[in-house]
Amino acid sequence: MHIQDAQERYGLVSRLFHWLMALALLWQCATVVTRVALEDSPLDEFLWATHKPLGFLLMVLIVLRVIWALMNLSRRPASINLLAKYGHTALYLLVAVVPFLALLRQYGSGRAFEPFGIPLMSGFEGDKIEWMIAPGSLLHGWLGWLLFVMILGHILMTIRHSRSGKQQILKRMW
Ligand code: HEM
Ligand code: HEM
């Protein structure tokens, strides 16, 4: 198993990023679906408590993943078509923008935020910072749902390509 990417397959680090983040996003999806469908249930309380820290972790992971992808740009497997190319870019963008807007809003609210006990934001007294809050309030939820829909499309496309048997794309990521 090679650490770096190659023309014919993704390397160990890219695969770890891909599947760890897939798991984390699946969990993140469960937190919001339960919030909508079973609000205030014990399951909702348990899952929602993980939404912010896990979202923060995803923000860290996407930054590292983009750096790794750029370092491997010249030797990664080629996209099978333009839809895959732009689709993957859109996934990257959304996984970065969605938590970023929420973290900005969290800071602007003046409330302390300590994901996994790390004192990331100490909070402050006084007025909230409106320009930091507004974009998140307007877009965080909607873009988050859009991300989940796009992930579903991504999974369906993987199944379609695997069934047609022409391109072995699952093999180069699994
Ligand atoms: C990739 C990471 C994330 C995803 C995919 C995501 C997704 C979502 C989605 C889809 C909703 C809407 C739920 C609804 O319709 O009721 C939501 C709500 C919320 N998220 Fe996130 N989130 C992420 C990260 C974060 C982070 C890092 C924070 C805070 C630091 C956060 C705080 C909130 C809050 C407070 C709400 C409820 C208010 C609202 O709807 O905007 N999220 N999130
Ligand atoms: C069960 C879930 C998933 C399956 C079966 C799956 C499958 C795959 C496969 C087979 C590839 C390789 C495509 C190719 O070589 O052209 C791939 C690449 C990719 N997937 Fe997924 N995926 C899943 C979840 C996700 C999630 C949740 C994301 C969200 C960010 C994601 C983002 C990407 C991206 C950005 C690529 C391009 C390669 C890279 O830059 O890492 N995938 N996926």
UniProtKB/TrEMBL annotation:
Cofactor(s) listed in the protein's UniProt record: heme b
One GO-annotated biological process of the protein: respiratory electron transport chain
Location (main, coarse): membrane
Membrane topology annotation: Multi-pass membrane protein
Keywords annotated in UniProt: Cell membrane, Electron transport, Heme, Iron, Membrane, Metal-binding, Transmembrane, Transmembrane helix, Transport
GO MF term set: electron transfer activity; heme binding; metal ion binding
Transmembrane segments: 12-33, 53-71, 83-104, 142-159
Record domain Cytochrome b561 bacterial/Ni-hydrogenase: where: 9-174
One Pfam family it belongs to: Ni_hydr_CYTB
Cell compartments where the protein resides: Cell membrane
GO CC field: plasma membrane
Entry-linked InterPro entries: Cyt_b561_bac/Ni-Hgenase (IPR011577), Cytochrome_b561_oxidase (IPR052168), Di-haem_cyt_TM (IPR016174)
Keyword Transmembrane: yes
The UniProt record lists the keyword Membrane: yes
Family: Belongs to the cytochrome b561 family.
Name used for this protein in its record: Cytochrome B
Upper classification of the organism: Bacteria, Pseudomonadati, Pseudomonadota, Gammaproteobacteria, Alteromonadales
